[in-house]
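#struct-help
A.M.: can someone run this one for me? Single chain, 295 residues.
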Amino acid sequence: MVRIAILHSAPRPTWSSRQLMKSFSELGAQPIYILWNYTSASISSRCPLRYHGKCLNVDAIIVRGLGRGLSVEKYMYRYAFLKTAESHGIAVVNPADALFLARDKFTSLRILHENGIPVPDTIVTEDPSEALREVERLGSAVLKPITGSLGLGSFMVDDTDTAYYVVNLLSSLNQPIYVQEYIEKKNNRDIRIFVVDGRAIASIYRIAPQGYWKTNIARGAKALPASPSSDILETAVRAASVLGLIYAGVDIVENNDGYVVIEVNASPLWRGLQAATGVNPAKELAQAVLQRIKK
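D.P.: on it. Structure tokens below:
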């Protein structure tokens, strides 16, 4: 029987992880939920991956979370673990290189831009003065961590006085400063497009609460079914492809000049999307993974 590991840092399976496990079971595979903290990698053909000290024999690993606030050392270890899996023929979804690339907000946007995909003006710097000059140039900007998710730690500022405090906070934490042009959202919403294996399987509008700018479902935004233009759908699929992702949540903001890709999430949640559209991404993803294993 095909064995699939669902890899996360949450002690108990999240809703999305449970949906994946259910979908794999229905398709005749055996899913297991594993935690980063009990994994090991070794330079050994006999037992390259271990879990709780025992050989981890699986056909695929679905990475549902890398963890937050990781040290550089843990970050490097988790990359090494996934690359070890790949080197021994285990399918890793999303692939390690693509997963870590998408986690780096600046580099992933730079690569999208170099491939002709519209993105906001963005800089990353260790120079607080340069960050403040960029805020002054842009007028309105978003300051956020270079890695992260769910909208946590992101601040919208429209003057250098406010930006000064956020910039100083990031500097005091020895963090680089990521400054992005604030895009005024059409109808205070963005579009989340869920891509699996080269197809846009579902789309939603994420509408921010009144008086609030963040459109993350985890921050209280409302999800409604969306029917984006074919151009936007094609852009979302291409964005995932350019970054090497098998599945992704692509966030797009429409404005007066067209649209821009704000971010590509390599471990997207989908509870709100599934409730709004009736599409089950877990089933689509499970089928895509099993097809890859058969190949």
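A.M.: thanks! The radius of gyration is 20 Å.
D.P.: also worth noting: Residues 150 and 218 are 6 Å apart (CA to CA).
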